[in-house]
Amino acid sequence: MGMITQEMIKQFSSLMEEIDEPLKNSFKSIHEGYPTENLVRFLKAREGNVSKAHKMMVDSLNWRVQNEIDNILAKPIIPTDLYRAVRDSYLIGMSGYSKEGLPIIAIGVGLSTYDKASVQYYVQSHIQMNEYRDRVILPCATKKYGRYISTCVKILDMTGLKLSALNQIKLLTVLSTIDDLNYPEKTDTYYIVNAPYIFSACWKVVKPLLQERTRKKVQVLAGCGRDELLNIMDYSSLPHFCKREGSGSGSGSFRLSRNGTTDNCFSLDHEFHQQLYNYIKHEAELMESIALIKQRSFHVDIPEPDLEDENIAERLESEFQRLGGQNGLSNSFGDLTISRDLAEGK
């Protein structure tokens, strides 16, 4: 893709002046005072095609308005036990900042089970993480480091990855689609660590199907990746699963730091999650909505995955059926199917 030019930005900006007022208001909530930089994000996501970038933006803003995304940080997942169950089965957290000031988002891909709540709760939690990153974390980083910071670094821990994880590929495709269509160009680099053989087989299938723009962002590191990651961040910002070989990333694997907080950035007791939880609680109180919220998920319209995403899921399923037959593991693969129940909220 070529450079995004001023002429592209000018054309895009002119088109944005014609959108409806509710969409303009929602756009203000996402650009946080940096409208041009956010137009550039969508232009990059559509290879500099102004018309396609404009359609993508309008579709995203309509999605935000129709699903009240601008208010999602005032809609907590309750009761607390349910929220804790979501956190224990969808391992994600923030461990610190890179030397350039980019937030470090850690994701426990291998040990996330997504089996303690309905799909909609995981979707709600995922969107809340995105919104908190964009509305709170990134603006704070911008202020702290004295320059506009709009992206993060993601470290994906593959510890414990098993074939059974493929049963959740449909949910992961939904979360990925939400990010691709509504939060484009928010990740600077994806670092893969603690990758077992099963990941290598997955990556061999998936890599050729990804857009070049995405492939360039992915780096698979040896072992826990500690030495390579220390080139871009201090030791204190390393996720717990990168600090020593075999450290594990499960929610039960943690130690207390000197200030008494847990070192496991996935834990609800970690400083990041405590701040996020309290922020959402405070926002809900400001809107005086706590009394109106029942124990149910905040339903969000799930966008249809791109045909490309569907192809990746199908290719993964087919490839592992083939690998199972070749290696005499057909019994292990016999019950392996890609879940298709999302439309029913299962």
TrEMBL record:
Pfam families, per the entry: CRAL_TRIO, CRAL_TRIO_N
Gene3D superfamilies, A to Z: CRAL-TRIO lipid binding domain (3.40.525.10)
Annotated TM spans: none
Residues forming coiled coils: none
Family matches, as InterPro entries: CRAL-TRIO_dom, CRAL-TRIO_dom_sf, CRAL/TRIO_N_dom, CRAL/TRIO_N_dom_sf
Domain of life: Eukaryota
Span of domain CRAL-TRIO: 79-239
Name listed for the protein in its UniProt record: CRAL-TRIO domain-containing protein
Source organism per UniProt: Ilex paraguariensis (yerba mate)
Organism ancestry: Eukaryota, Viridiplantae, Streptophyta, Embryophyta, Tracheophyta
